[in-house]
């Protein structure tokens, strides 16, 4: 296993980089253990178990980066801990609760990849098949004949850069375009005008559009909307009642955490409600910490995939395949890997405007966590995830 830096826990957000002046929002982290609250502190007798005080400190600093709320669910060597900081709704000051829904962004890709690998295990799709042959209705250019299903899953497709997407490099631009509506075919059309960036399979570049094609593939193979397929194959069997693919609905329903963006004039604007169609197939998921924890467990214990499919999901490309910046490849089929202080985690990052989610575990589930918080800057730093990982790998 190639050792990767903590940057592998970072995501590739939809927004371009933007430097903002932020105002600190100090908050005290609170914790509610998932197990019997009358039980002794699990960290008191086992130095390798959860350290509640350190975890409270890790998520309680809502100034680095500026965020309105955070929540963390951790299990380490059988000890489980849940803590929160900040407010789910800044206007009312309501605390974050364990059943609060939030936008999980690109964690969607892990669900999509799971379904594709299920279909592969069932013999319904060949991972080596060209996507152009699998989706004949798209009439893709002939150069797409070199892009296979496996290339899309591993972000080694070399798809061209987008053309025609709006510039969302400022928070004001995000607000202006928050109700723009995109169809999957329109998204595909933004990457079909130019030649491939590199020979498929020879390099790796994280691209959400890869998973738009894969969601379309799920629909082609099943004859149903991909969100319904995820619900029937994953959500309902696992009892993930707080998780959904919202489709055309721009709102969050039931108890939820609000997302906010800091404008360039210093004001804070609520961005909880917006059209997710630009993230169709790759970044729409709404979920809860408990649901993502359950999904994580089911994935790594083989409830969702047979061993040969799960092995594919936790296998990186060969060492000769590098990211475009020359660093080692870190994305597998639906997941990503990070090794910190000798501990290797597998999981997925997710972010969308006002929300950031990190879902990672060691392969044996001896250490795992779900972190969700609500940064207010488009280019918020990764201080919080780094603090959490440092505690868990100390």
Key features of this structure:
19% strand; 394 residues; globular; 11 helices; 14 strands; eight-stranded antiparallel sheet; disordered N terminus; alpha+beta
Count all strands and give the number.
14
Average pLDDT confidence is: 90
Helix content: 25-40%
Order of helices and strands: EHEEEEHHHHHEHHEEEHHEEEEEH
The coarse overall form would be globular
Q: Whole-Å distance between the termini?
A: 20 Å
Strand content: 15-25%
| Biggest sheet layout | 8 strands, antiparallel
Return the structural class: alpha+beta
Cα-atom radius of gyration: 20 Å
Q: Helix tally? A: 11
Low-confidence stretches: 1-5, 13-28, 31-45
Q: What this model shows, in words?
A:
The protein has 394 residues and is an alpha+beta fold. Helices cover 26% and strands 19% of the residues. It is built from 11 helices and 14 strands. The strands form 4 sheets. Strands 1, 2, 3, 4, 11, 12, 13 and 14 form an 8-stranded antiparallel β-sheet that branches. It has a two-stranded antiparallel sheet with strand order 5-9. Strand 3 and strand 4 form a beta hairpin. Helix 1 runs antiparallel to helix 11. It is globular, with a radius of gyration of 20 Å. The relative contact order is 0.22.
């Amino acid at each position: 296993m190639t050792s990767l830096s903590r940057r592998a826990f970072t995501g590739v957000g939809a927004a371009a980089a933007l430097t903002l002046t932020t105002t600190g929002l100090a908050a005290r982290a609170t914790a509610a253990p998932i197990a019997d609250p009358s039980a002794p502190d699990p960290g008191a007798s086992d130095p390798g178990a959860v350290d509640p005080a350190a975890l409270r400190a890790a998520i309680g600093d809502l100034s680095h980066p500026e965020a309105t709320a955070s929540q963390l669910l951790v299990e380490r060597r059988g000890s489980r801990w849940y803590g929160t900081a900040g407010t789910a709704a800044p206007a009312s000051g309501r605390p974050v609760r364990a059943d609060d829904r939030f936008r999980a962004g690109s964690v969607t890709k892990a669900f999509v990849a799971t379904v594709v690998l299920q279909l592969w295990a069932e013999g319904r799709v060949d991972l080596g098949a060209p996507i152009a042959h699998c989706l004949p209705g798209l009439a893709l250019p002939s150069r797409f004949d070199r892009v296979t299903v496996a290339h899309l899953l591993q972000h080694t497709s070399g798809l061209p850069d987008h053309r025609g997407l709006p510039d969302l490099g400022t928070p004001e631009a995000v607000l202006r375009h928050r109700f723009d509506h995109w169809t999957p075919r329109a998204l595909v059309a933004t990457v079909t005008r130019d030649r491939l960036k590199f020979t498929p399979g020879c390099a790796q570049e994280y691209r959400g559009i890869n998973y738009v094609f894969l969601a379309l593939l799920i629909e082609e193979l099943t004859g149903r909307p991909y969100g319904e397929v995820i619900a029937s194959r994953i959500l309902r069997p696992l009892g993930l009642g707080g998780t959904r693919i919202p489709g055309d609905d721009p709102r969050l329903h039931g108890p939820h955490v609000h997302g906010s963006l800091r404008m360039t004039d210093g004001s804070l604007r609520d961005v909880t409600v917006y059209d997710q169609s630009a993230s169709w197939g790759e970044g729409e998921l709404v979920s809860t910490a408990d649901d993502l924890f359950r999904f994580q467990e089911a994935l790594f214990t083989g409830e969702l995939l047979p061993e040969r499919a799960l092995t594919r999901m936790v296998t990186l490309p060969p060492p000769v395949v590098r990211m475009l910046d020359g660093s080692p490849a870190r994305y597998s089929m639906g997941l990503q890997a990070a090794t910190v202080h000798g501990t290797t985690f597998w999981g997925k990052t997710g972010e969308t405007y006002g929300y950031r989610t990190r879902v990672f575990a060691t392969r044996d589930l001896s250490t795992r966590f779900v972190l969700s918080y609500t940064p207010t800057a488009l280019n918020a730093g990764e201080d919080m995830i780094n603090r959490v990982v440092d505690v868990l790998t100390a």
